[in-house]
Amino acid sequence: MNGLIDVGLFDQITDDIIYEHVYDLYTNHKPRDDQHLGYINKSKTTINISCADNDLTIKQSLTSLSSNTQASSTGFVCWQTSSFLVDWILTDPKCPFYKSFAEKQDLSILEMGAGVSGVAVSLLGPRVKNYVASDQKHILKLLKENFSNNVPTNKFSSETISSDNSNKTHPKIDIIEYDWEHPMQAVP
Ligand SMILES: C[S@@+](CC[C@H](N)C(=O)[O-])C[C@H]1O[C@@H](n2cnc3c(N)ncnc32)[C@H](O)[C@@H]1O
């Protein structure tokens, strides 16, 4: 085990076999069509998903997704990627991150491009010491609303989300603006 990642669980890929490896992944390990990594449902404003034995209700903004303004973003709908990633981390002992979450280590995590769904911050946030989910400004209101609807307010402390936990104990979870194209404009 090396820090957060159990590197012993990775296959070693050397330069001379990299093309063969990618070809093998594409042909033999291609996911089924229903396991695509795209959006889950682009026609419903509220969806229910189950991830790692947890049920989440997620509001999406279809009008903002399809608006022609600068603030239109793919982050206004929930993407399957997050749900598969979190499920893998929390349920598969072969995942290199599994032990870190199962053993409640003192992890601090920064998530970038969280989107409105808040799947990762809702399910991973309560299992670590510090979790900061970030995205562009226009995403944050619905992201905070979804998080608050899915995580009881007594399960975390926060400076950015309303919480019942005033004694500043961990897990500490925050949702902040961070635009990686304009990193110097970050707002705490
Ligand atoms: C395909 S969506 C994925 C959203 C979320 N991770 C999920 O799985 O549902 C990509 C995300 O990246 C965010 N994003 C795009 N450009 C960004 C930037 N310059 N800075 C921060 N976030 C950005 C979008 O707002 C959006 O939430």
Automatic annotation (TrEMBL):
Gene3D superfamilies: Vaccinia Virus protein VP39. InterPro entries: Methyltransf_16, SAM-dependent_MTases_sf. One of its GO terms (molecular function) is S-adenosylmethionine-dependent methyltransferase activity. It holds the Pfam family Methyltransf_16. GO terms for cellular component: cytosol; protein-containing complex. PANTHER family: HEPATOCELLULAR CARCINOMA-ASSOCIATED ANTIGEN, RIBOSOMAL LYSINE N-METHYLTRANSFERASE 5. This is Uncharacterized protein. It comes from Cerrena zonata.
